[in-house]
Specification:
Oligomer: single chain
Number of helices: 8
Distance between the termini: 19 Å
Shape: globular
Strand content: 15-25%
Order of helices and strands: EEHEHEHHEEHHEHEH
Largest sheet: 4 strands, parallel
């Protein structure tokens, strides 16, 4: 765990097959990763004596924290950073117009590189594509009853456009949206946009405490 702000700790982890975690990387596995979020929460509560008040995910994990809230709805504050709402978009742009035909014939090898420069190959399968295409984020958003949800999205995001963030916020009852002007998908356009992201997160935590949500 790491200090986040006076009174808060943050616990960050890589999903199976990602970063430093063992396992096989998968393009989809959304519900499997939601289960890993729940396992992490249970560990923090039962073995570390921590009260889990917030959950934040970025990009793919931004969508997964919404899925988590729709399924468990047991973490008071949920923050979706640059998550995708329309799951059927972006696939052909990333992998090519023929990717569905190729994956239907056989798993497709995909080269990749981690942030530390390490290269590896993963397999894109028809099953993972089907899972991604069939995810209904509108239904997930409608299923959130207790958690308070904040969506943060950059206006210059070319990976997952700002319209996804706007629609996500609109679809979750009582949720809020912070648009960070000029921010790209990873909020690396400038130090200013990064600080706006941090301020939005801390402001949401403080609002939750002030209003008795946590």
């Amino acid at each position: 765990m790491h200090p986040l702000h006076p009174g808060y700790n943050s616990f960050r982890f890589d999903f199976s097959g990602n970063g430093d975690s063992e396992g096989t990387f998968r393009f989809a596995n959304y519900w499997g990763e939601v289960a890993e979020i729940h396992a992490a929460k249970q560990h923090l509560q039962q073995h570390e004596g921590q009260a889990v008040i917030g959950l934040l995910g970025h990009s793919k994990a931004g969508g997964e924290v919404v899925l988590y809230a729709s399924s468990y709805d047991d973490i008071p504050l949920v923050i979706n950073v640059a998550g995708r709402f329309w799951m059927d978009r972006g696939v052909t742009m990333r992998f090519g117009e023929d990717i569905f035909e190729r994956a239907a014939a056989a798993p497709v090898e995909m080269p990749a590189q981690r942030d530390d420069g390490h290269t590896f190959t993963w397999l894109l399968t028809k099953e993972d594509l089907d899972e991604r295409m069939n995810l209904d984020m509108a239904a997930a958003a409608a299923g959130i009853k207790r958690s308070k949800v904040l969506t943060i999205h950059g206006t210059a995001d070319s990976v997952i456009p700002i319209d996804d963030g706007r629609q996500m916020a609109e679809s979750i009852a009582g949720s809020s949206l912070v648009e960070v002007e000029g921010a790209d998908h990873n909020f690396r356009a400038s130090e200013q946009v990064l600080q706006q992201l941090i301020a939005a997160v801390l402001g949401f935590l403080q609002e939750g405490k002030a209003k008795g949500w946590v």
